[in-house]
From TrEMBL:
<dbReference type="InterPro" id="IPR005856">
    <property type="entry name" value="Cys_synth"/>
</dbReference>
<dbReference type="InterPro" id="IPR001216">
    <property type="entry name" value="P-phosphate_BS"/>
</dbReference>
<dbReference type="Pfam" id="PF00291">
    <property type="entry name" value="PALP"/>
</dbReference>
<keyword id="KW-0808">Transferase</keyword>
<dbReference type="GO" id="GO:0004124">
    <property type="term" value="F:cysteine synthase activity"/>
</dbReference>
<comment type="pathway">
    <text>Amino-acid biosynthesis; L-cysteine biosynthesis; L-cysteine from L-serine: step 2/2.</text>
</comment>
<dbReference type="InterPro" id="IPR001926">
    <property type="entry name" value="TrpB-like_PALP"/>
</dbReference>
<comment type="similarity">
    <text>Belongs to the cysteine synthase/cystathionine beta-synthase family.</text>
</comment>
<dbReference type="InterPro" id="IPR036052">
    <property type="entry name" value="TrpB-like_PALP_sf"/>
</dbReference>
<dbReference type="InterPro" id="IPR050214">
    <property type="entry name" value="Cys_Synth/Cystath_Beta-Synth"/>
</dbReference>
<keyword id="KW-0028">Amino-acid biosynthesis</keyword>
<keyword id="KW-0198">Cysteine biosynthesis</keyword>
<feature type="domain" description="Tryptophan synthase beta chain-like PALP">
    <location>
        <begin position="7"/>
        <end position="287"/>
    </location>
</feature>
<keyword id="KW-0663">Pyridoxal phosphate</keyword>
<dbReference type="InterPro" id="IPR005858">
    <property type="entry name" value="CysM"/>
</dbReference>
<protein>
    <recommendedName>
        <fullName>Cysteine synthase</fullName>
        <ecNumber>2.5.1.47</ecNumber>
    </recommendedName>
</protein>
């Protein structure tokens, strides 16, 4: 008998219908709001998919081999996923992240054996990326580069997109995703548009001044090279208060314990459900809420 390994359980996550949050107006308009529960991945987020994809494809090309040291700048979820994948496949992992990221994220990365390098919070992810590149240039390791590596969106073209098409029986009309590295929305959009060009792809960015983990509005010089604006039909700006409130309501009213970026994307999906007719709206639940407990978003 052949047994599966942990990496065999990356992907194929549940898609569930929201029962209460959409409310009477969405029901009257015959709209359905669905949540893709990416927190069910082994390391707890949607980033498990590209992390494993980037390592496996780099191995296949001969770019890396077990025992090598990998370096990556991260705000959290990609780092956790890479730390897990590195542990599975035998790599040393150095993660560079802003010092203001939640303690749960740091502890989880270290639990998987990763070394952490904390950059000043004032520099944000931009400085973390600069630090990682400097370390690479000093010969301290190899950067997989989630921001410019096409194996990132490929994971969603080959995994997330086909799963959504199959799970909705091809009825999906709108796909809503937070935009950070943008790998999720790029790869999923490509697949869904090939299946049905009429499907609307909705991206979510933070409103000016909002600090929502996992959602970014990049300066032009730091815009991920994997991003193609043509793959996004419409972009919504998300307010901090809306993202946090929907995050709490997902837990209280739907039993979905999610992170703040998931609340941000779902706030947009719910807004759409009150405006559209006969729509099947899918929103990505990027991760689990347990890595945000110290942020204060959930009541003590």
């Amino acid at each position: 008998m052949e047994f599966q390994t942990l990496e065999d359980y990356v992907g194929r996550t549940p898609l569930v219908r929201l029962k209460r949050l959409p409310g009477d107006e969405a029901a009257r308009r015959n709209n359905v709001v669905l949540a893709k529960l990416e927190g069910n991945n082994p390391a707890g987020s949607v980033k498990d998919r590209p992390a494993l994809s980037m390592i496996v494809h780099a191995e296949q090309r001969g770019d890396i081999k077990p025992g090598d040291t990998l370096i990556e700048a991260t705000s959290g979820n990609t780092g956790i996923a890479l730390a897990m994948a590195a542990a599975i496949r035998g790599y040393k992992m150095i993660l560079v992240m802003p010092e203001n990221q939640s303690i749960e994220r740091r502890q989880t990365m270290r639990a998987f054996g990763a070394e952490l390098v904390l950059s000043p919070r004032e520099g944000g992810m931009e400085l973390a990326r600069d630090v990682a590149e400097r370390m690479r240039d000093e010969g301290k390791g190899i950067i997989l580069d989630q921001f410019g590596n096409q194996d990132n969106p490929l994971a969603h073209y080959e995994g997330t997109g086909p799963e959504l098409w199959e799970q909705t029986g091809g009825t999906i009309t709108h796909f809503v995703s937070s935009m950070g590295t943008t790998g999720t929305i790029m790869g999923t959009s490509r697949l869904l548009k090939e299946k049905n060009p009429a499907i609307r792809i909705i991206g979510c960015q933070p409103e000016d001044g909002a600090q929502i983990p996992g959602i970014r509005k990049w300066p032009v010089e730091y815009l991920p090279s994997i991003f193609d604006a043509a793959r996004v039909d419409e972009t919504f700006n998300v307010a901090q208060a809306d993202a946090e409130e929907i995050t709490r309501r997902l837990a209280r009213e739907e039993g979905i314990f999610a992170g703040i970026s998931s609340g941000g994307a779902m706030s947009v999906a719910l807004q759409l459900s009150r405006q559209l007719e006969n729509a099947v709206i899918v929103s990505i639940i990027c991760d689990r809420g347990d890595r945000y407990l110290s942020t204060g978003v959930f009541p003590a």
